Amino acid sequence: MKKYKYILLTLLILSVTACRKLDIPPKNIIEDADVFSSSAGIQAYMARLYSELPIEDFRYSPQRGLNFFWIISPTPATTGEALSRDQTSSMQENFGGWSWDIWGGSYTVIHDCDYFIQTLPSYAKNFTTAQVNAWLGEAYFVRGMTYFGLVKRFGGVPIVNKTLNYVVGTSTDELKIPRSSEQAVWDQVASDFDFAIANLPAVNTDDGDGSRANKYVAAAFESRAMLYAGSIAKYNTTTLFDANHNELCGMPASLANGYFQKSYNAAVMLDGVYSLYLSAWSATDKTAQYQNFVNLFSDASSKENIFVREYQYPNSVHGYDAYNVPRQLIGPNGYSSEVNPTLNFVEMFDGIPKNADGTIQNLNSSGQYNLYTNTMDLFANAEPRLRATVILPGDVFKTQSIEIRRGIYTGSASGGINPLLPAGSRSQYPTGNLITSSTASQTPYTLPGGALMNPAGLSGIFTGDQTCAISGFSIRKWLNPNLPTSQVLENNETQTWIEMRYAEVLLNRAEAAYELYTAGQAGTTNYQQDAFDDINQIRSRAGATLLSSTGSMTIDSIRIERRKELAFENKTYWDLKRWRTFAKEQNGTIYRILMPFYSSQAGKYFFDARTDERNDVYTYDPRWYYEQIPQGAISKSTNLVQNPGY
Amino acid sequence: MKRLFYYTALCLVIVAGSSCSKIDNYPAPSDTINGSTIDEVTGATVQTEVGGGGTRVELLETSYSSNPVPIYFQSMQDGTFNNTKVFGATYKVSVQGPFVPLIQTDSVGNVLTDSSKTIVLKNTATLNFKVQPFLRVEWVGKPVFNADSTVTVQVKITRGTNNPNYQQPITDVNLYVCNTHYDANNNYDPRYSTLTSYSGTSGNSILGQVITITTTGGALPAQDVFFRVGARINAVYDEYNYSTPVGLTYP
Fold first, then answer.
1. What radius of gyration do chain A's Cα atoms show?
2. Alpha-carbon span A563 to A569, nearest angstrom
3. Residues of B whose CB is below 8 A from A622
4. Is the peptide bond before A470 cis (omega within 30 degrees of 0)?
5. Distance of alpha carbon A340 from its chain centroid, rounded?
6. Which residues pair with A120 in a beta bridge?
């Protein structure tokens, strides 16, 4: 009986299972046809490409890399723009730390671009020619950006413009693509951007808000990249050749003018398409100029925004405000004051009293401190752009006066107050006659008139706790003035990152033009006059003193203008690299700070300018101009030659 | 009882079966490469700094591959080096530091000179590289304590090479103060050290002169300190040439 049951079961199994075809497309794998047949599929592919664009935004720091939420070693604290309690020296980028795989990550993006470029044409019948060309243009744009991200770090890298297919069991030798020369990679960047310029429309029809590329976005980045390339050709001194005489690091100086010319030409393409933001600006009103520069970073309708990265809660967020608000506006989960602008940075600006050597004038002619009723009096005529970039001691933010005070000086003031330390001293302040506070929980001091005053300001400076304005200044740029303090949290901010704005294009154009002018390149354009006009447009909007004549302009004044305008936008790090001036600026350097004190006897404030009290020394090693190729990449592909000095 | 017996037997089988194979069949590296970088004129070792900013030795294991990934180890501060954990093999050895490179190339990458040494390492190899330092930094007399408890030193800086490609002007001359003898650009007390930069060709005027440097920042703390003078030109990795470190007892 049991036997029949088994026979029956066998028959049933055989008859029921044998009917279906087994060879069907897998249901759980997205295939080319799913992606490339509809514009929604393309949109999804693009979302990934754009999210992996290597741009140094709110989620970047040299310490932890791209697209990382925790920004407590901020980029400006590596360039001398600012001091931070968590960043105490020069540094190169920390690949490999915090799972930052710049090498493998970039080649994944390049592969994704190559795959898109190879595959889309066979699905072209589903779309209009204009759509196909625009999308191909975007893929070339993303690939150009990614090669740019590699070449600015490593010099020459392997160029891989087709997807590689490895057949299991075969040799891996042909996957071990050697590095191309640095020149070849810069030319690759230029040709990818040129393709994008030729194929992209003037306005991106999928997203016209600046978050996706159009013709002019590609041109703007070409102007940035070619300026970088020209600077390397002109200023770099490191060279590295492989066995076949490819120059992996460095380029012949004779190429510089060609790159500067490309940069200039690309920048000129944006003439009249984008413009400097002037919505709230007035030629005669410094407050309006200040407010205009503040608004520039939050007005989505700004014609200055060329390419932006948008954030959205809760999918894509950052913590800029949480890390950087002044101490007295600290959010519920702690942090604050990670970026404290240095006095070196502030002294670049106009409108503050200065000594003949350009340093801030805080002493009178007899060598004693100048006295002020309010700390803002020193900055009464400061350039509006400075106020919009840096919170000066006593300035107003979120309706509060941001109080920054190092301590109360109780010594006699009747004959004037002599400097607390000899000029240039790096010692601690003498503790006699000085009331200070080590933390934010303060014991008020009774002033001679009977009034109470905390030794330190609400935003510092505290001697035992660096969560305060350790330089005497706090950062203003990018901060959202409308974010309630209860919302100043990590992973909660969504203001837009402006990666490329028209001001940079003008500065690229000015620098390229001036380099061409000094190299004696005279075309139909008067390059010197062009640079002069560009710089004065920037200065006029900023409320700065205009250049008086073309002759008063130098390459240094153009560079300083760039550093002021683009400060705290993670651009200066790359500028100092390409100018090859990092190691000169950071050569046993201790940055300067400005400490406000209140004299209880005089009832007034005075300022002491000195070097960083922590004595943090910045020394940039010139071999960092070319980063170390990750050792893991060389182990996998032994044809890769390491950069010099590693 | 029977079950216990089976379990015990099973454990024995597992232990016996899994413990037989050798874990590592290659002996640990035990050969030694030592030696020094020596100024070919004075015969003294070329002073450098510890860590990544100083002289290092490059090993190319040519018996393993014609295009090997280089292995590096750092020299000691006095210009000598000693690595006792090297595999026996054929190596092409060179040193890199603040001296005229042993391997020089022209502007298109052709090798002009190559004074690296090829050795077949068995037990110990001692290699003394004769090099031309970019600069020689020599003490003139001893550091002197001043009445205000600062210290003044005198040094003479001369070029160590006649090679025209390495005659760049001096860019920095620094007096380093430190509380250990590991006293260099990567380790000094910034409060008292005196750093001087020269722009353009202005640094050339001090070549061959006796120059006097005094510590900065007022009185030195009451403890024994070490002094060292470093100078550099913009060549190769911009590394410093140093004097020997000199200790001074606080009076």
1. 29
2. 10
3. 237-238
4. no
5. 16
6. none
Determine what percent of chain B falls in helix, strand and coil, rounding each to the nearest 5.
Answer: 10, 40, 50
Residue appearing with tokens 């052709």: B110
Q: Concatenate the DSSP letters of all residues of A441-477 into one string.
A: S---EE-TTS-EE-SSBTTB-BTTB-SS-TTS-EE-T
**Residue A253: φ, ψ to 5°:** -60, -25
Helix H or strand E encompassing B242: strand B241-242
Parallel, antiparallel or unpaired: strands A592-599 and A305-309: unpaired
Tell me if residue A497 falls in helix, strand or coil.
strand
Q: DSSP 3-state assignment of A369?
A: strand
Residue contact A588–B186, C-beta within 8 A: no
| Enclosing H/E stretch for A183 | helix A182-199
Which residue do the tokens 């154009």 mark?
A: A509
Model confidence at A76: pLDDT above 60 = yes
Q: Is the full-model pTM beyond 0.95?
A: no
Q: Which residues of A touch B67 (CB under 8 A)?
A: 243, 638-639
d(CA B183, CA B41): 25
Query: Is A623 in contact with B237 (Cβ distance < 8 A)?
Result: yes
| Residue-by-residue DSSP string for A80-138 | TSEEBTTB-S-----TTGGG--HHHHHHHHHHHHHHHHHHGGGGGGGS-HHHHHHHHHH
Kindly state the DSSP code that residue A550 receives in the 8-state scheme: G
Q: What is the mean pLDDT of residues A213-234?
A: 98
Tokens of A445: 């001091």
Contact indicator for B214, B150 with CB cutoff of 8 Å: yes
Is A621 in Cβ contact with B52 (below 8 Å)? Answer: yes
Containing A541, the helix (H) or strand (E) segment is helix A527-542
Mean pLDDT of A132-147: 98
Secondary structure (3-state) at A438: coil
Residue B181 dihedral angles phi and psi, to the nearest 5°: -80, -5
B206 within 8 A of B212, measured Cβ to Cβ: no
A395/A372 Cα distance (integer angstroms): 14
User: What's the average model confidence in pLDDT over A619-623?
Assistant: 95
What are phi and psi for residue B80, nearest 5 degrees? -105, 160
Candidate from A246, A247, A590 with C-beta closest to B190: A590
Q: Is the ipTM of this complex over 0.95?
A: no
Question: What token pair was written down for B38?
Answer: 């020596």
A638 close to B (CB below 8 A): yes
- The four Cα atoms A354, A359, A363, A367 give a dihedral, to 10 degrees, of -120
Handedness of CA A79, A80, A84, A85 (dihedral sign): positive
- DSSP class of residue A377 equals G
Burial A256-268 (b: 16+ CB within 10 A, else e): bbebbbbbbebbb
Q: Is A241 on the interface with B (CB under 8 A)?
A: yes
Sign of CA dihedral A120, A121, A125, A129: positive
Q: Are A566 and A572 in contact (CB under 8 A)?
A: yes
Q: How far apart are CA A52 and CA A250, in angstroms?
A: 27
Where would I find the beta strands (DSSP E) of A334-420? Answer: 340-341, 390-391, 396-397, 400-401, 407-409
N-terminal to C-terminal alpha carbon distance within chain A: 81
Q: Which residues of chain B have a CB within 8 Å of the CB of A613?
A: none
Amino acid at A258: G
Q: Which residues in A lie closer than 8 A to residue B190 (C-beta atoms)?
A: 426, 588, 590, 615, 617
Tell me how far apart the alpha carbons of residues A626 and A93 are, in angstroms, rounded to a whole number: 10
Q: Record the tokens describing residue A481, joined without a space.
A: 């003035």
Count of positions (residues) in chain A:
646
Residues in CB range of A104: below 8 A, 6 or more apart: A633
pLDDT in 10s for each residue of chain B, 251 residues = 567 667 777 766 676 666 555 667 788 999 999 999 999 999 999 999 998 889 999 999 999 988 888 999 999 999 999 999 999 999 999 999 999 999 998 888 888 999 999 999 999 999 999 999 999 999 999 999 999 999 999 999 999 999 999 999 999 999 999 999 999 999 999 999 999 999 999 999 999 999 999 999 889 988 889 999 999 999 999 999 999 999 988 88
